[in-house]
Design goal:
Blueprint (H helix, E strand, L loop, with lengths): L5 E8 L9 E10 L2 E9 L8 H7 L3 H4 L5 H12 L3 E4 L2 H14 L8 E3 H8 L8 H8 L9 H18 L2 H12 L10 H5 L6 E6 L5 E7 L2 H8 L7 H9 L2 E6 L3 H15 L5 H5 L4 E5 L9 E5 L11 E5 L2 H15 L19 H4 L13 H12 L13 E7 L2 E8 L2 E6 L4 H6 L9 H15 L6 E6 L7 E4 L6
Parallel strand pairs: 1-4, 4-5
Antiparallel strand pairs: 1-2, 2-3, 6-7, 6-8, 9-10, 9-11, 12-13, 12-15, 13-14, 15-16
Amino acid sequence: MLNQPLIFLDLETTGATATHDRITEIGLVEVADGKLVGKWSQLVNPEESIPPFIQSLTGISNDMVRDAPTFDELAPALYERLQGKLLIAHNVRFDYGFLKNEFARVGLPYRSRVLCTAKLSRKLFPEHRRHNLDSLIERWQLTCTARHRALGDAEVLWEFMQKLSAQVDGALIDSALKTQLATPSLPAGVALETLEGLPESPGVYLFYDEKSAPLYVGKSVNLRSRVWSHFSGDHRVAKDMRITEQVARVEWIETAGELGALINESRLIKELLPVHNRRARRISNFYSWEWDGSLDSAAPLKLVTAGDAQMARLENLYGTFRARHAAVAALTGIAEEQSLCPMLLGLEPTRRKDAPCFAHQLKRCRGACCGMESLRAHNLRLLEALQSLRLAQWPFKGAIGLRERAGERNEVHVFDRWCFLGTACSEADIYDKLEVRGAPVFDLDIYKILLKALRQLRSKGNKGVNLIEFGPLSSLWYREQEAVAAP
């Protein structure tokens, strides 16, 4: 890597948002063929006031930049200086984003290959928890002449790379660099600018072909890295190769967290039926055994499908099977193990009244079919045997919400008795979700997603989600907490 033209860069800015904050200082170290060829540093007039906190952190005051050149004055020479060189920075998306936005303001379309030293450190040394610049300085005993000043921090990165090259096996470094520097094999219809706009946040992404037919729906906690992985040059997954050949448009939906991404993925796959989500499409249906609620019934079980599973009857469902034969096989196994009557369970044709079933003749049924065992006793044994298959019982008095927050994004996913009622983006929107018209539809995938989320809350394994228990709709009181007992 060191045998190509490199730019080690650091920027100081008025804030953290590249779209409206501005650069106050640029520092770069130029390297060619593994040797230092130059350093450059320049204060920049941001044409806006520097916040007091930033002044305190960097030591750069409004007075210092008042007479400095603006970025548009520096842009032509800087643009030429950066061309064709690998840009290296710590948390490079921050610095690269600011450069792209500043150049765009003066009409220059800046693009560059980039390398993040923070990601490189995490990849090479996963045993360490911290990989910020202060941690690298301490761990590697690096020299920093001016911390939080552009050139001083850029010099630290150059020294870090030199020490890596001298002390770490080259094959390990090459392997760590391969993922970061892999060039995506972009489909003809997808512009690089589209992928550059992908956020590093949770959400759902959608691929469409040239006729706008949906090809694939996926989710990730990092949309940018996941989508780019589909277009990696090696195409280790055959499906990625097929998608790359067909995709013409990429869209995405940001969410506040992973739970929202999972819910949206499940919903969109069922709505759009994408070509390459075949497995998820196949498993959207299921079969379950429904108990009729009577211990004296001669036919206590009925096989129902997903469309028959209404919210009010979910507590009477046992098992979720992807195919009819799987449901029948499971019940047959229970009948054989517990000496239950297959005729009463609908597994064997009904004979004349009081005639024993075939299993009874083989001494595999205790005789509920011919009066040797009461229906109540038989059904009690059946009900006990079914408990391991029973759907989890709704552990709340009414509807609940699971709140996820990420920056300014605030989402509340509303559920009632395992059914998803919708996502509210404001407190007022919660009313609309709770006032759902008609019977909500039970969805097995949503059930499993919610069950897992509640269990994580119980173990405090999902600190980014809060539980809200809703009271009566008329008053809409609620109690919000971070943990809840799992069902």
